[in-house]
Amino acid sequence: MTDPVEPGTVRPGGRTARVRAAVLRAAGDALAEGGIAQLDLADVARRADVGKTTVYRRWGTVANLVTDLLLDMAEQSLPRADTGTLLGDLTANAQLVQRTLTDQRQGALFKAIIAAATGDTRTAQALRRFYDTRINEWAPCVEQAVARGELPADTDPQEVIRAVSAPLYYRFLVTGEDLDNAAADRAANAAVAAARAGTYRRNTTNASHT
Question: Domain named HTH tetR-type: which ranges (predicted)?
Fold first, then answer.
């Protein structure tokens, strides 16, 4: 059997792109319905109305399929907001996370992928790449806030963006508390307040001794 293509190394077009889209949609549906334990390449092929040999040849393993699914999710995610203020931008970010996690399909899908990442190195690496992509997409809104003088010059943009989504994922995965608009707004406001106070400065250790 031909070795499967490494996910992310090919940008398919035409029929190949349609097949990939159908397979990834089917994989996402299967994950949302049954979790990683129930994900089966033959079942995904059936759901996508694609030949089993096509799926096995292109992806080869469940880990490869999940990796490609995460790559596609990162590529298809909505671009960051640009409201002109840090609070506006981070509120938009928090509301996007909140909507995604409370969506019936997307929420179940993320839970399945996160669960899979705890036991599979490749899935964990793909999940980190997904979040790195999203964090880097939103980091410029913090950089713009620094340029406007809203934040200390040495603020770490990635840390600010992580601070927005962290409490939302905590509610989603750990406490089960309501993940509503108010929770999203609080997360954004808390991140802005902490950033303005210098909590996310890269040189906090040195700054505390000056």
Answer: 17-77
